[in-house]
Design brief:
Length: 113
């Protein structure tokens, strides 16, 4: 009998990788969602593999996707915690104001050249 591929292995790998992008571009929220979905799909594939291990050939890909998703989940959680801290202490508004001042300074320098 020919070995089959687990049904969610590829999509869970893609979602796990995208969770890194999501944690950086969406203040951690996107990374939490994407890595959570990836871990859910990995869990389904692990159950499928446990039922009949000799039937499937790409379980290593599922384990890799799980590791990447866990790393993305941890990074996203850390970013969300830092964001919550910054919002709670009021430092987020200060950082935003400093960033806006830097942008205005850069625009003035470009106009002067």
């Amino acid at each position: 009998m020919e070995n089959q591929k687990l049904p969610n292995a590829t999509i869970s790998m893609v979602l796990a990788i995208l969770s890194f992008i999501g944690c950086c571009c969406t203040n951690g929220i996107g990374g939490l969602v994407l890595s959570g979905v990836a871990l859910f799909l990995v869990k389904k594939d692990e159950k499928t593999y446990a039922e009949n291990p000799e039937l499937y050939s790409n379980f290593q890909q599922v384990k890799t996707a799980k590791i990447i998703a866990i790393i993305g989940l941890v990074l996203s959680a850390l970013i969300v915690l830092v964001l919550i801290y910054l919002l709670a202490t009021g430092q987020y508004d200060e950082m935003t104001q400093q960033y806006m001042n830097m942008l205005e300074d850069m625009q003035q320098q470009q106009q002067n050249q």
